[in-house]
Amino acid sequence: MPPAVPLSPYLDFSRADWAARREDQPLSLTPGDIARVRGLGDRVDLREVEEVYLPLSRLLAFYVNATAGLHRVTTDFLGERPAKVPFVIGIAGSVAVGKSTTARVLRELLRRWPQTPRVDLITTDGFLRPNADLEARGLLQRKGFPESYDRRALLRFVADVKSGMPSVSAPVYSHLTYDIVPGAEIVIDQPDVLIVEGLNVLQPAVVRSDQRTRQVLSDYFDFSVYVDAPVDQLRTWYIERFLDLRETAFADPESYFHRYAALTDAEAEETAAGIWERINEPNLIKNVMPTKDRATLVLTKGEDHAVTNIRLRRL
Ligand SMILES: Nc1ncnc2c1ncn2[C@@H]1O[C@H](COP(=O)(O)OP(=O)(O)O)[C@@H](O)[C@H]1O
Ligand SMILES: CC(C)(COP(=O)(O)O)[C@@H](O)C(=O)NCCC(=O)O
């Protein structure tokens, strides 16, 4: 018998190799659908959807079926009646990398597969502590760092949805007011798929003083995606988006950043670079980037938000 060839845990695809994995799956999104889900500064178009996200949705449809099969054998073994268990996908990556666009495109594609008509999406910013709470804890300059979230509530939320509980509610964050919206909630009611998008969704467990580890969010993920790009590129995207927001979101007198609406280009660039360097880049380097290898799939973007490489974990 020939010696077994050791398998690498990762498969690396060029964009062209990955695009071929679409096989003959027809594109179900129209240009109008894509324009609706595209985030500010993001360039996702029909070609990007066809070559990158359609093959990914095909792979995810296989995973959904296989996971349901695995669940069935377990319930058979236990002699239980099979319950509906949502398939949970985590999407991680830096501020300004375009996680929200990736999440929305995947939601639209997955919805069109026959076995997953109900796809819900939640962003972890709803679990940020309210500003007053952050201020009391000295964390107002640490928004997006792991400690700025109510991690217990976030974990409870995902565990409840995964366990098949009906009508599980989550708080809502507003980028406009830069705070949690008092009294607002989003209700998730037994979807086929739940997408959980946020900077820190792949954070590893910390070891407690009694040497046991806490549960983490990714314990409940069936699949995870890390959206990656070089740090210099992310900084540029963050600053460009800030300049665009000045003319759109910041122009609203309700916006927390309204005082930035009147800045000149040079002043706005300096302000954005300051926020990036003080908050978002240190968080990226210390907390977000180290979680990349924990993802099932890494999408690496080049200039213009185009995905250039795909890495799939197969072991
Ligand atoms: N200050 C802001 N005002 C209004 N919208 C914002 C602001 N900052 C970010 N956003 C929007 O919030 C969304 C999430 O942004 P972010 O957390 O950077 O993730 P990503 O770019 O990876 O999706 C994006 O659609 C972005 O355009
Ligand atoms: C709201 C965010 C923390 C992202 O949250 P996520 O949905 O990834 O949990 C981030 O977009 C942000 O606003 N960071 C703070 C930078 C600042 O203080 O302006």
UniProtKB/TrEMBL annotation:
This enzyme's EC code(s): 2.7.1.33
Subcellular location(s) of the protein: Cytoplasm
Domain Phosphoribulokinase/uridine kinase: 88-241
Protein name as catalogued: Pantothenate kinase
Coiled-coil blocks: none
GO CC terms: cytoplasm
Involved pathway(s): Cofactor biosynthesis; coenzyme A biosynthesis; CoA from (R)-pantothenate: step 1/5
Entry keyword set: ATP-binding, Coenzyme A biosynthesis, Cytoplasm, Kinase, Nucleotide-binding, Transferase
UniProt xrefs under HAMAP family: Pantothen_kinase_1 (MF_00215)
Gene Ontology terms, MF aspect: ATP binding; pantothenate kinase activity
Similarity annotation: Belongs to the prokaryotic pantothenate kinase family.
Gene3D superfamilies reported in the protein's UniProt record: P-loop containing nucleotide triphosphate hydrolases
Name of the top EC class for this enzyme: transferase
